[in-house]
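fwd from M.: "can u put these together and see what the complex looks like"

so here's what she sent:
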Amino acid sequence: MNKVYNNRAWFLILPMLMLVAFSAIIPLMTVVNYSVQDVFDANTRFFTGTEWFEVMLNDPALQAALLRQFAFSFTILAIEVPLGIGIALLMPKRGWQASAVLILITLPLLIPWNVVGSIWQLFTRGDIGLMGVGIRELGYAYNITRNPADAWATIILMDVWHWTPLIALLCYSGLRSIPDAYYQAARIDRASKWAVFRYIQLPKLTNVLVIGVLLRFMHSFMIYAEPFVLTGGGPGSSTTFLSQSLTTMAIGQQDLGPSAAFSLIYFLIILLVCWVFYTAIMNSQKDNTTQGGA
Amino acid sequence: MAQITLKSLAHSYSPSPSGPEDYAIREMEHVWHQGGAYALLGPSGCGKSTLLNIISGLLTPSDGQVLFDDRVVNELAPEERNIAQVFQFPVVYDTMTVYDNLAFPLRNVGTPAAKIRERVAEVADVLDLTSLLKRKARNLTADEKQKVSMGRGLVRDDVSAILFDEPLTVIDPQLKWKLRRKLKEIHERFNITMIYVTHDQLEASTFADKIAVMYEGQVVQFGTPRELFETPAHTFVGYFIGSPGMNLMEVARTEEGVRTGTVDLTLPPALRNAIHRSRSRNIKLGIRPEFVEVLTEPGEASYPVEIDNVQDLGTYRIVSFTFAGMPFRARLGEDQPLPRRHAYVRFPEAWLNLYIDEFRVEVGQ
């Protein structure tokens, strides 16, 4: 075959380039632009270099929010992933029960974020909320506006309720794709239920779980509407997560420079964590004794 | 170690079967002797995999009994039957090494570690897997994976039979041959009953001492490859075994003799009498292409035919001709003289098989 050299072919990628420019590069560069300047008004601005970044990284309020954010994300992952796998394993495999359970499980996923917040806000109210009143009746002085532990537990419970179905659905589809021969071979090999899970089901779920964990990490790390509606970040700042701090700074106080720098740091953290996680999983799957290939 | 007996066994997937067509396995009696190498041969959907799953216990038959020696095992789960099964697509435990894969069935029953090491080493040696023992199973090629799944069956020394369900489907042709030979070797070395399901006659006849040919849920013939070739017990066996399959002609009784289409056949008296004694309307004569004689000059009991085409396949030729309005084929050696267009064919009586209602009838000479 003759290879034709024609550099005009580069023009063919122009539409794609423009699309990416409008969707990602231009908005991001705007933020980069603000992050290195101090903007007073439309005509007055100064170049500040990395100053905003230093300020942001040393801000104790933001550091605390970052720690809370990590604590939140890892807690919900630690609950949602095993729970999602468990639910997927228990879901019926065929018949009308399978469809019915699928629909029931999917319902929370269809509710918009701020609606979820509102639902739980009402649900947990001490005077009229079913859960709020119920827990008080049991003798515990449940109050999410006063007690940080209650607020935390409620937010985690809310997230688990909202998003475990995603993990369960992903795992369910992963489980359904395992050929029957694997289970048959396991029976003939006299494998225990645990061995079937450990050596057949879990390995086959790795790929969907990687997607699930990445999605859930990114989502939960950016969580905003639900805690904002439910607790407003309180009591005090005990449930103020990163995105809420950012919004307060950018919209509430119009601190464009610092919030731009902060946005970039925020973005880089998510990128870094996802990359580390993904690389670690992919490396663990590699065969250590073979060089290259495979 | 066991003899496997199928006693009035039948299986239907429908809960209330109304006729024979509802049965995946029609009622049958069969014995697989201890230590034999058997093949279960048939087209897709003839029930061979169903039969295999019934033997291994993955399926419970709707009628009849499965016996291992004298014990009825119908109610026993696969894990209680001491049977190994190798599936069409290699099943390996991806995250385990080859060693762990082979050790898995032993560990599940709590075998001591020293014993496991010894058995795994032995089986790995037989299957040429020794150099791969430390590799993760997921990175193996298809044939290596299939060897690992076979190895898991061999590693247990309490196995009474190994069942293969078209195990070479995903293997490259040149490796198929190697693996088949390996299986043969294993069979000789371990003296285990092996039942090998396939739709490939070559695979069946190179592996097995005896082949059971299945057709529409029935074993229509159980015999050595040679018996299947020379005396097919059912028209399906004639058609399915051999390349090309058997020539079959429908025949009808006349006042004096036997006729097929518009041609009166000259048949030996015994054969003619057998046809005349039968009440059936479904009577066929079959002859293998290998035994059809093609002549340039008319001879005794020969029929003139027109040759349609000749396929030269190197070491032999397939001659297609029309006889009494039916397409026929003859297989000729490469040095045999071949008439150009008009030819005469003879059907030697020793190789003519009589089929009444599709089953072969023995005719005394």
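replying to her w this: Chain B has two domains: 4-239, 244-361.
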